[in-house]
Amino acid sequence: MKRSLARAMVLALLLAFSFALDVAPARAANEADYKTAYSAAEAASKEAASLRHQWTVTVSVLAAAKKAADGGDFDRAVAAAREAEALAKASIFQATTEKEAWKAMEIR
Amino acid sequence: MKARTSILLGSLSAALVALALTSPRVVAADKVDPVADARAFQNFFFQKFPDVKHEDFVNGPYSMNEDMKRQWQEKEEFPPYEFALDAGKEMFATPFKNGKTYADCFPNGGVGIRQNYPYFDEKEGKVVTLELALNRCREANGEAPYSYVKDEMASLTAYMAFTSRGKPMDIKIPDDPRALAAFENGKRYFYTRRGQMNFSCASCHVQSPGERIRAEILAPALGILNAMPIYRSEWSGMGTTTRRFVTCNSQTRAVPLEPQADEYRDVEYFLSYVANGLPISGPGARP
Amino acid sequence: MASSIRVRATANGDITEVQALIQHPMDTGFVKDAKGELIPAHYIQQLKFECNGKDVFVADWGTAVSKDPYVKFSFKGAKKGDDLKVSWTDNKGGSDTITAKIS
Amino acid sequence: MTTLPGPTATRRLILQGAASVALLGLGNLPFGAAPARAAANDKYPEEAFKQKSEADAIKALYGKTAEPSDKVKLDAPEIAENGGVVPISVTTTLDKVTSISFFVAENPSALAASYKIPEGTIPAVANRLKMAKTTNVVAIVEADGKLYSATKEVKVTVGGCGG
Fold first, then answer.
1. Of the candidates B189, B286, B195, the residue with the CA atom closest to the CA atom of residue B239
2. Would an 8 Å CB–CB cutoff place C41 in contact with chain D?
3. Which residue of B has its CA nearest to A83?
4. Residue ranges covered by each domain of chain A
5. Is residue B248 annotated as a catalytic residue, yes or no?
6. Neighbours of chain D (3+ CB pairs under 8 A)
7. Which of D107, A16, D97, D138 is nearest to C74 (CA)?
8. What pLDDT does D35 receive?
9. Which CATH class is domain C5-29+39-101?
10. Residues facing residue B194 across a β-bridge
11. Which of B60, B234, D2, D151 is most buried, with most CB under 10 Å away?
């Protein structure tokens, strides 16, 4: 049981780290940057959903990205889309590792 | 910019793969043995909580904490689910437009049968839960199905649970590979971590029953569905099994599945089967 | 429509124990609904119990009384078969009343 | 004295025990003497329910202050299982009780519920109250024209792990 708790800590920690990574891009992001970032995030989120492992935060951050873009704030929109992609990828990773990892906790 | 994010993701997955590989019991696929699983499941809780009477496990958090148990007994003097219970009894007796009633859809008129749900329907090859059977009964009689998370469904299941109070849970797994697969799928769902919190049902209800998450005491997984449906003070209203699954998912920041999704039906099948022998105590009152 | 009041009155010797559960939202006026609008305050203000022509218990309630409110008390001077009249009024002028037999 | 756990039958015996004790207390008084002050009139104490603080609410309701007394037994949970439904009850051995009230100190308005106890009604009440946060619950008993109080802190927080 202890090991799975440690794994949860690591996952949460790394995710927190990924949020803090919003490094301002060299130049102001424009709509094109946003579109590419958003489509990548959307693809990852769709895959997470197909694995039935989607996270609520992925959905809300993706929506925030869209809202920021609609408001013309492409810097924030790109950052949010990146974050959504990272979250979706983490949930995909969770889905794949758990395919076997769940047995560690099973009562036998 | 792009490069930095992918480096991060690379390191993230590498770290976690390393962790996953070190997990001790990556075991080859073993044969599905529900009887052994149920016995191991029950013994785990009987040994972890030796002074909790076996039938008390169905009282969830109240079997874990004296102060909470007293508050529960205060509520049970005149429980808040009385209204749902009476509404359910009335709905059960009110004929559909075509003159039939729920009693015509269920064995024994729907009275005293809750302990056999969910069951594995060999024609359909899937698990059928009480809530699903009720909606199918409505549709078969030309009525619109009820929402799985709202009061009408909770009132019906409250009445049916009440008529089975005290009867031991009695779930059957027919000798059908699809039934065994459904049981295994339910077990997998129960132990699989999900949501950004990275919790599985077991993280709370197997690893830490009796402990607090803020104001609430975590219920043991054994017999956790025996009291369904429940009136929760948190919702100040009735909650069906579906509503409980959906809200548990969103609490761990996992997007819930559609009501009566296969996974929900299977995890209900798993949790009910391993609680065989423990009494039905629904409808229940919970924090 | 079934009454909103559920009451149990049981006499033991000269003491009658009364329990009442009332179906009422008891909205405080501080809670927002799904659309974010404030749900207006809607709560029972007074609940009265009368037996043999006299008040045996009067409750004055504020918004801090739980939804589907419950109250328990006991009183002397009644016996099995007497009528217990229970009535409430709320801040929107709503009301309900029933008469229960002491068992 | 308080409602103890255990099947309902023993609970009733205990309540009767409490009631008979209260009766004894009344017994030695010449019955003819009417209680010092008639029960507060039937009017709904609108003003008292508006007061924010507990002290103002008590003053608005009774027009005097209370003194703590161990004859007032307040039964409330240590940690409320849910702030929306907190089972709170009070019972007392004081005699000539005319009113019992409950206050939740840091609720938007402190007065939660006030009960008129006519002659012949046992001075004990159980109810379920809402509490906004961890704070003191105060029970006030008006007996023979004087106010007695009991106070207990009840911890209140939300449940669940977030979402």
1. B286
2. no
3. B5
4. 2-105
5. yes
6. B, C
7. D97
8. 41
9. mainly beta
10. B199
11. B60
